[in-house]
Design a protein that fits this description.
heterodimer, A: mainly alpha, MetI-like fold, 0% strand, B: mainly alpha, 14 helices, globular
Chain lengths: 272, 279
Amino acid sequence: MTTLSTHTRSGAETLLIALAFLFSALLLVVPLALIFAFAFREGLGVYLANIAEPNTLHAIWLTVFTALVVVPVNIVVGVCLAWLVTRFRFPGRHLLITIIELPAAVSPIVAGTVYLFLYGGQGLLGPLLQSAGIKLMFTVTAIVLVSLFVTAPYVARELIPLMRQQGTEDEEAALSLGANGWQMFWHVTLPNIRWAILYGAILTNARVMGEFGAVSVVSGTIRGQTNTLPLQISQLFNDFNVTGAFAASTTLALMAVLTLVLKSTLEGRFWR
Amino acid sequence: MAHKPGKHLLPGFGLTLGVSLLYLSLIIVLPLLAMLLKVGGMGWAEFWRIASSNRALAAYRITFGSAFIATIFNGLFGLLLAWVLTRYRFPARRLLDALVDLPFALPTAVAGLVLVTLFSNTGWYGQFLEPNGVKVNYTQAGIVMAMIFTSIPFVVRAVQPVLEELEGDLEEAAHTLGATGPQTFLRVIWPTILPAFISGCVLSFARSLGEFGAVVFIAGNLPGITEVVSLLIFIRLDEYNYEGAAALAFVLLLAAFITLILTNLLQAWQARYAERSRG
């Protein structure tokens, strides 16, 4: 350590810290504060009425529902994939890791578009679905599917480096002591990776609840039916109901703050 | 699968392989394939006509240009934040560290709503900027602002761990050998963090290229002036012009592929670098 709190700060050091705080305040703190200032600017009564507006309430419910489906699926698949690529060597291993990272690199609009080309009326499976009487596009199912696409890497990405680093000794020991596969998983693997799972789940949740681009392509944005919270916020803003848009935003802003608190707590305790 | 029998001591190969392949195929590969088929079906001439139309070219220019400016800002700001967070101890350091991730946690639609409100002519920032002739909302500056906000964390989070690992010894050595502060930074620290820095910039640029939610709120979305590629795709879909949307989505997908390959190469470079400096 070259710099300790006991030494006197140089001019350059003070300047750099001040600059970091100034820009962070302008770009991060003020925007966060503005959400709440605008949501409550017409009083608590108006705020509560805005939140209780049926379409906004429905949007909150739909957003929570989507997260409740997507996060567990991501956990199961993330654990499977991480187990596969860290415990076994086989051809195509790196390709699998690249494929799962792909959704993080593409624009959310592209994510929505590829689903439209698969399940939409003119899509690859469109005619097939139509003849079977199944409608996927512009339904809640479509919202769940694109959410699964955009969040595919989140859990696996946290687990892969950790499980690679932990190695297989504990698990091999459990097996040699007579544990079967599931016992080994529940009593050895899972306790070792549970915090990383939670960490990945928190990031997945934030992305699912906030996804806008991909969902806006496939949801059809039907108020009270397929409007998630971000879409509802956009529509309120387009209706010039700015206070209502900010009121709806406070729920997502609280989710974001909670995400940061949990993330930072986990990092402080288990990493770094 | 050509794995050697008897090599797998641990159970679950078949199960996890099955689940992973099925899931990746259905959720990621199949939808991408559907779009590639759509693009393949339209033929090269048609693809080129759409992808090189004037409106598309203007959208590329605006998108890539704005993303470039935003990345330069975030490169500098990210470097500053990473440096301050790893090298100095001061009150509220952990709070600042946690706050850096806000743009990843805050939904882009909310970010867009906040920015357009901040920079409106009566907004907290706009009321000071507009009388001085600086207009952000519904101009390219707005697009840049939205891109800056949504990709702030990339460079910080790329550079921070490298700086942390470097802490102390190398700089101490340089200092003992008579190097001044700036010399130490340029000759010792900068070369070490460079791969991580570039990789953070590439990620930041890629994110900005695809950004939609925050941009549509503040951009004004005028064709040829403030229309980004992802918005043009959205408009084409709205017009049921699926060929148009597919061609442009393919261009963005290609850009994503290139950035993914670039970051993989950079990470390999960084790993080699770390290996050598340790050895």
